[in-house]
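User: Show me sequence and structure for the first protein, then do the same for the second.

Assistant: Starting with the first protein.
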Amino acid sequence: MCPHCPDEASNLTDARTASITAAVTAAGPVGDDTDDTWTARVGDLAARITVMCQDGSDVAAIVDGIGVAKRFTATVLAVTREQSSTRALVRLRTAPSQFHADGLEDARSERTDRPSGLAMARRLTMLVGHRVLLWVEVAVMNGGAGKVRVIRHVEDLGVDAAA
């Protein structure tokens, strides 16, 4: 083994240390808690953080999706619920393009039966009439049979006076 390359055991130790450190930071100071109560809170947070870091977690999917997402500005015109998937269907007005000559596009939230999807749907509903910066991932669905545009992140740019 190369002495300059980390082995699997050291990678695991590094990941463990990072999770524990993040949990201690999230738990905050011991304060009025007993050491046992504070340690239990750190343990719970460490477990949650570790789960979030695993492949397939909702949080990992968001982070991975942002990494490959297309970023663009649009105005949120409407948000409705797609009955077949429980996703929020978002109607957007963007600059006209070869694919959307009228500048109207649709994108979706993650499924709203997942906490992250429900939170995004609620946030988008509050942003109707606002100009936004979006990160949209083209995700494969139904085992590759189709694709869906999933909004991974949104930032409010303020009310669109033209909306």
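Switching to the second protein now.
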Amino acid sequence: MRPSTFIMGCVAALTGLALIVTGIGFFAGWFQAGVEVVSPANVKEQWAFAYSYDRSLSALAGTWCSAKTAEAAETDPDYRSQRITQRLAYENQYRSVEAQYDAALANAFKAKLVKPSDVPTVAPTLDQKVQKLGLHCG
């Protein structure tokens, strides 16, 4: 056997071995990612996130309702303008929490695959949350 043929064979064998090791590493990484998603630590973290954000949405809906009621009862135009600004601030804050909630629950590597079954997959709109809570806002 010629030395150049032997060297080329060794290079080909090492290249093939490197590809196999790389492939195993790649698929092992994906397997590990799946294990991390369903790990007890991640499940606990995502359940805490889901319940925390669901309760935050409820609290914001209640606060928004109070602001709307105060706005409707206000007769002074200057104070009414302030009440409108407060209500709009709560609406914006609700939308921000709603977007964070939706983003986390749409992400399969975060909460989508392990969320509690009693929280919604998509955050309710402010109107839906107010209705669900049975709030009557001014």
